[in-house]
Amino acid sequence: MSARVTRLAVLLGLVLALTGVGAVLVLHFRAEGAPRLAVGDCVNLTNRAVVAVDCAATDSRYRVAKVVGSADARCPNGDYDWISEEHSRLSDQTLCLMPNAREGDCFAGGNGSKYAELSRIGCDGEWTVRVGRVIEGRSDRALCTAPQGFARVFAEPAATLCFLKP
C-alpha cells in the first residue's frame, strides 16, 4: 500500500472515531438533561424548561396526562396544553398536560380561558376562575352547567374540569 493510501485510511479512521465519540457525548448529555416524567407527575414550565414539582405544592400548575413517544406526535382530543422536544429539553417526546386543579382551587391571571397563564392563589382575594367541579372518568362539556363558567375536557385520562368565573 502506498503512503498516500495509508494516510487516507488513518485519516478516515480518525474521522469515524471522532464522529462516534461525538455522537455518544451528544446522546449522553441530551439524555442527562431530559426529565424522566410519567403520567400523573406534576410539572411547571419555566423558561422553556420542564421542572418536576410535588403535586401537592401550591405552585404546581400541570399534571402529565399522557407522554407521547415522539416530538411531533399529537395529544389526544381535548383541551391539553403540551410541550415537546422542540420547545424544551425533552428527549424525543411530547408531554400532554392538564391543569393540576382540585375542587375549590382559585386561580388569578390570564383571561380565564388559558390555564397556562394562571397562578393558583387563595380564594379570599381577587381571583379570575375557581374550580367548581373535577369529574374523573368522564370527558363531557355538558357536565359543567354553571352559567358563569366554562369547561375543560380531556380524553386521556378522561376528565372534565368545571371552572367558575366571579
Describe the structure concisely.
The protein has one helix and ten strands. By secondary structure, it is an alpha+beta fold.
Q: How do the strands of the widest beta sheet line up side by side?
A: 2-1-3-5-4
The SSE string, one letter per element, is HEEEEEEEEEE
Estimate the helix proportion, in percent: 10-25%
C-alpha-based Rg, rounded:
23 Å
End-to-end gap: 85 Å
List the helices and strands and how they pair.
Layout: H1 3-33, E1 42-46, E2 49-53, E3 62-68, E4 81-84, E5 94-99, E6 106-108, E7 119-121, E8 129-136, E9 149-154, E10 159-164
Antiparallel strand pairs: 1-2, 1-3, 3-5, 4-5, 6-7, 6-8, 8-10, 9-10
What does this structure look like?
The protein has 166 residues and is α+β, with helices and mostly antiparallel strands. It has two domains: 33 residues; 123 residues, no CATH class. It contains one helix and ten strands. The strands form two sheets. It has a five-stranded antiparallel β-sheet with strand order 2-1-3-5-4, with no helix packed on it. Strands 7-6-8-10-9 form a five-stranded antiparallel β-sheet, with no helix packed on it. A hairpin with a 2-residue loop joins strand 1 and strand 2. It is elongated. The N and C termini lie far apart (85 Å).
Key terms:
166 residues, alpha+beta, 2 domains, five-stranded antiparallel beta sheet, 10 strands, 19% helix, elongated
